[in-house]
Structure of Myrosinase-binding protein 2-like isoform X2:
Amino acid sequence: MAQKLEAKGGKKGGVWDDGVHDGIRKVYVGQGQDCIAFVKFEYVDGFEVVVGDEHGKKTLLGTEEFEIDADDYLVYVEAFRDKATEESIVDLKFETYKGKTNKHIETSPGVKFVLHGGKIIGFHGRSSDVVHSIGAYVTFPSTPDLQGKWIKVHIHRNVQLRRIRGAFSSRVHNITKEMAQKVGPFGGNKGDAFDDGVLGYTGVKKVTVGENGNGVDCIKIEYEKDGRFETQMHGSVTGILKEFELNYPDEYITSIQGTYSNVARYNTTIVKTLTFKTSHGRTSPMFGNTAIFSTDFVVEGKAGAKLMGFHGRSGSALDAIGAHFFASTSPLKHIEPRGGFGGNAWDDGVYDGVSKISVGLNCGNIGYVRFKYVKGSTSVRHSHGKMSEEPKFKVDYPNEYVTSVEGTYNFCGDVTSLTFKTSKGRVSPEFGKASGSKFVLAVKDHMLVGFCGRNGLILNCLSALGARFAPVPTPVPTPVPTPVAPVPAPVPAKKLEAKGGNHGAAWDDGFYEDVRKIYVGQGDSGVSFVKFEYDIGKKLVAGDGHGKMSLLGTEEFELDFPNEYIVSVEGCYDKVFGFEAEVVTMVKFKTNKRTSPPFGMDGGIPFVFEMKDHKIVGFHGKSGDYVHQVGVHVSPISKS
């Protein structure tokens, strides 16, 4: 389970929240005149690299990129607010577990604050044209295990681009990861922003709305978190409080209907009315007061999603309201941790299955657990508690899977025993000694795919254990083989030597079936950046960017796939003042239908990549801040 560290800095700007992920892969920091102009983060979720939004506004002063190694993770952020107003961030230092840091100002330029407390797995804050504040999500770190294939997904911009480092994976995961959706807020733009988020909340039990003669003056929400209920309130109580209680946990809010309008008393727009609808088909009374001239709004997720948290703006009244929703269509079943209520929460997430379980004892109770999960072709380990002697129980995954867990916990809230059962009818040894209250974690026709729980604060013992279950996949019948005509093996692509200066880091996108789109960025001295989108099996694959994007941005050359393909690449390279080696100064692309405009400046040593009856199916080269070399992969043009 992650912990949300409060955003520190100024109070100006709009609230942003990238949410919780498995880790951070890359940090972008944009410099402003006297402060940090913008930040942007790339996150890791399993094998996916999720590209977050830019928070703030780019300037002409450049962007620093700080990449975290696959076997490392962020643990510390040091920031400084400007001394005069404390409303903007003037410097940011990021540090990893292994001690790697970004470039930053060594002398203190302002009022210092830090974010730390574990592995950093997400960021939130405030921004306008600059960064005003920053906060983080942290969790207890486990051994980084992120090497292998990564798929890149620009989720925030809804661009479904995926790339894979290394060989292509044909495995299909049957588990749908729960995803949050943030809707709104609707209403006015004054008051202080608030965001209860969805972190750690299991659901909403009760909503209390304050109404006066002008509209809705406040909202109070009772959430469940870690088996306990806690209340968040936004706005000011000036009138009557009215409650709407749900049949929790079976019933949940699916939508909010309301109105907002300008109110003279507050000299701003506030929420006038609120009505809630639930998963049981119930509709609450209308709270607030109607107005002749008002604007209607609806806050709801997709396909009856479950409301998990509110956000908006409030001050003397409720200025605006929105909500976070979780998709209710996920096949996963979540059993909340059973046992005591104390301790630090943790959550391993969701995997394909469990292959090994290790359990250690402490003072007669369960003091340590370690789980080895399987995700695709990768193993991921998570451990919790103080390491001790580890009796192990192996599971023959994927031929066998865990179906249930039985355990007991004592009056102090410590788990005293654990026993695991599998799909083959096997039962693990009893770890610990059964005493106290019994609990069972099991869902019919489901398999266990992830654990969550809590560890005690005083004794290093497991105080609660929960789990997530996924439906058991339906066996696919083995098809009867039918004779087929032999298919000739594909002709491997040929790699043509790169041309240009011998400087920078080598890169190679490999070869594909076709090229779909090309991005070229120019700098003051030539081509500074290239990126290619390829096709394989009628699926789009986005390659990495090579070089460094300048403030001039990129130009695009899109092919009429699948009817158009590249037959040659022309360009030139030259020695440019200030560079150790030649840089590519111009490239252009010729297809079976047309020729692109030249990208860059035509001058220097020319080169051409072309082979009769072949097409370009991949690129390689060398780059640093500029593109120094470029080469191609070619394959025969199909006659079909």
